[in-house]
Each structure stands twice: as structure tokens, then as C-alpha cells.
């Protein structure tokens, strides 16, 4: 398994942005003690859902996404730079809230479930999603929440319903990206927060937004 991307030291002001406690949903090894800036790039038109990459501040690929275009459950697998599966994500069939289930590795067994994510309400003008850890079987109160506008690629990730932000994302607009048909946005993962967990949420956000645009 890979470790967190290395940038030669903590980012300026990283300590001030630290979460109240480590957020290690996938693994503690994906939590860095400093801000982790990532760039997510996706081709606007793709023949294989493999054109979704996550790079670090040095431009090195740290994560990739693969999946099947003609998949009933829209299954996606998050891979590390070496091509090893870290997480598998699949949409729950017949879910009114676009519910997604995320499992460890390439599994889809209930025993490997890590968390589920769903829209907070069926009809939305702005993006709002609730995330529940596998241990939260009642799912009455969410463990994490996403708020913002994925259409504008501007969202914030929070601990539950609190104001404690653990990550944020914003669109990176360049003329070259438009000409090349690429959608690029930056994701800032706060200190001691699992960057693979945040990347998986970004993938799910993209899938839900694409469904709404179809």
C-alpha cells in the first residue's frame, strides 16, 4: 500500500488547518501531518472510464480510477500509482438518493464495507451529501457532510454537521484544459485527514453530477 504523497515538508499554515482528531477512514498511512494539495483531472469525453487521475503537487500520479461504461451499478475502482486496487465504489440499485457503497480493495462484500454516501435530499439546487461510516448502522446522524456546488467544482467537506472543515475543492480553469477537453480542479486535504477517503468522495460526486446532467 502506498503512503501519503511527499512534498518535502509541511505546507505553510498546515498546523492551523488540522482536524480536531485524525480522520483515517481507509488507513492512517493516508493521513499526512500537513496539508495535501491534489489535482484531479478528467477528460470531458472518454471511451473508457480510466481517464480520471489524481496527481500530487509535483505532478506525479498517486491515484487512478477505472470502471466499465456499460455497468448497471456504475462500479468504479480506485487504484494507486502501481495499479493496485485500494477501494471499490458502486451505486446502490434503485436508490432514490443516489446512494453509493464503498468497499476496501476490489471487494463488494458487506464485511469489507467502509462507508456509504448519499444525497441529503432527492431534489437539490446545491450539492449536499451525507456520508456514513460502516459502523454507523442506524444512519440517523451523518459522520461527514459535503456542501457546495459540484457543477462549479466548489465544495467543502465537513466532520458531520459541524463547521469543522477537513477538505475543500475548487475548479482550476485554464484555456489549455478547455482546448484539450479536460476538467481539472484542485483538492486541498487538511492535515491528519485521509486523502484517499476524500478522493473517493470526489469520484462519487462526479458520478452523481454526471447522472444529473444526462
Low-confidence stretches: 6-16
- Strand elements, count: 12
Integer-rounded radius of gyration: 16 Å
Which range best describes the helical content: under 10%, 10-25%, 25-40%, 40-55%, 55-70% or over 70%? 10-25%
**SSE order, one letter for each helix or strand:** EEEEEEEEEEEHEH
Overall pLDDT: 81
DSSP helical segment count: 2
Shape: globular
Layout: helices, strands, pairs:
Blueprint: E1 36-43, E2 52-55, E3 61-67, E4 76-80, E5 85-91, E6 100-104, E7 113-119, E8 127-133, E9 144-149, E10 154-159, E11 165-171, H1 175-179, E12 182-189, H2 195-213
Antiparallel strand pairs: 1-2, 1-12, 2-3, 3-4, 4-5, 5-6, 6-7, 7-8, 8-9, 9-10, 10-11, 11-12
Folded structure, characterized:
The structure is a single chain. This protein has helices spanning 175-179, 195-213; strands spanning 36-43, 52-55, 61-67, 76-80, 85-91, 100-104, 113-119, 127-133, 144-149, 154-159, 165-171, 182-189. The relative contact order is 0.20. Helix content is 11%, strand content 36%. The chain has two helices and twelve strands. It starts with 35 loop residues before the first strand and ends with a helix. It has 214 residues and is mainly beta. Residues 6-16 have low confidence and may be disordered. Strands 1-2-3-4-5-6-7-8-9-10-11-12 form a twelve-stranded antiparallel beta barrel.
